Amino acid sequence: MRDLDFIDDDQTDTVFRDLIMLTLAGFVVMVFLLLPHINPKAQASGEIKSPGNLIVEARWADDLDTDVDLWVQAPSDLPVGYSNQSATLFNLLRDDLGRVNDLSSFNYEVAYSRGIPQGKYAVNLHLYSNRAKVFPVKVEVTVSIKPSPHESAKRLLTREVELNSRGSETTIFRFEVDDKSKLIKESVHDMPIELRAQLRSSG
Question: 3-class SS at 137?
Fold first, then answer.
């Protein structure tokens, strides 16, 4: 009778161990299934996932207390800049005032378009103020294009210019886009056009 009792206890221990091991295995499987959702894979490095279709950027020296304004105009649309930050096509993301109301030293303005209609575009810079009193103010301007949300932005035009006088407005690029949202390369020039004055006269 004692031998029989001993055999029953051993079987109970085996069942208990199996139950513990199965529970542990189930927990491990659940952890592996949840890991991808807890820590999703980061996007591949080097991809530019910017909003908008046409992206116009202006960048000048960090820590320079200088207010440079980016102005852009799409075909048959109002100019967009600090005093009119949105139109039918373009939006100015931020009016960078240099060190005024700025928690960072990063000097940068950017405008995005919603769509790329065929026609003529213009990009200007306006040196609004230069409290740093440093001349010339060097600004790099780039125009990039992203025909669809699934594509990365591709740089079309880039240029570094020097702004030498406060209050001056300088045309950086004028260009045309065809009906397939392609840059017409021979259309690129910098013949001066006033965008701020257009906005004032339209008001």
Answer: strand
137 within 8 A of 60, measured Cβ to Cβ: yes
Residue 38 has pLDDT above 90, yes or no: no
Q: Which residue is listed with tokens 């799409």?
A: 74
CA–CA dist 191, 20 (Å, integer):
80
Q: What residue has token string 């960090």? A: 62
Q: Which CATH code, of 2.60.40, 2.60.60, 3.30.70, 2.60.98, is assigned to 54-202? A: 2.60.60
3-state class of 60 per DSSP?
A: strand
Side-chain-side CA neighbours of 4 within 13 Å: the count stands at 1
SS3 70: strand
pLDDT at 16 over 60: yes
> In degrees to the nearest 10, what's the CA dihedral of 136, 139, 140, 145?
-150
